[in-house]
Write a structure and sequence with these properties.
The protein has 248 residues and is of the alpha/beta class. The chain contains eleven helices and ten strands. It has one domain: 2-enoyl-CoA Hydratase, Chain A, domain 1 (Alpha-Beta Complex). Helix 1 links the parallel strand 2 and strand 3. Helix 2 packs across helix 11, helix 3 packs antiparallel against helix 10 and helix 5 packs across helix 6. The chain is globular and about 50 Å long. InterPro entries: ClpP/crotonase-like_dom_sf, ECH/Chromodomain_protein, Enoyl-CoA_hydra/iso.
Amino acid sequence: MNDHVTTERRGALQVIRLNRPEKKNAITRAMYAAMAAALKAGDADDEVRCHVILGREGVFSAGNDLADFLAVATGGEGGQEVYDFLLALANAEKPLVSGVDGIAVGIGTTIHLHCDLTLATPGTVFSTPFVDLGLVPEAGSSLIAPMILGHQRAFALLALGQGLPAAEAKTAGLIHAVVEPDALEGAVFAAAEALAAKPPEALRIARDLIRGPREAVVARIQEEATHFRARLKSDEARQAFMAFMSRK
């Protein structure tokens, strides 16, 4: 397993943790591959009843590692690892529970659209500056976010790039609960353990009924990915990435 993504078993829970705090948990291609592998392995293991996804104190994820984006924007290849992870996320067979503290940017926000329960701390802000980087929404967010938030709030998040604080995210239905930082992981594990204790087949059917068919979500992920790959090599994106890197 990649050192920047750790996995552990906690009873019937599989805990996947982003573990690159020195880079604000910016996600590299290797990290995407590790998370995809963990989700698939957990789904294939009958002893795993629920996936838990966590970051570190004060930071869930600053989004995709921009060095990877810049490499593609300047002529490199890549991105299959991201796509594999998004499909594993969208098609996950076990419930997904996530906990978010602090920074949640780009995929650090859209990952939670696929989670069945997300808990966040009061200081958390969800943001998706895709258009500011010359890109487009990803992870099926252009389909799922309007269904949850309504058109205008989803447009403000995904196109305007306006951040959504945790309290507003709860009111809007993006997350399940807001809890204090020192109680976050305990609350996440309690929710996941409660799900893991349910009759598994009844829970699976209930979850499938609530989530609905995955085909439309997968199709939108594919459509977004086509645009995203093209945009990565656009002049707009190249200029935005270089400007961002020069500021760093």
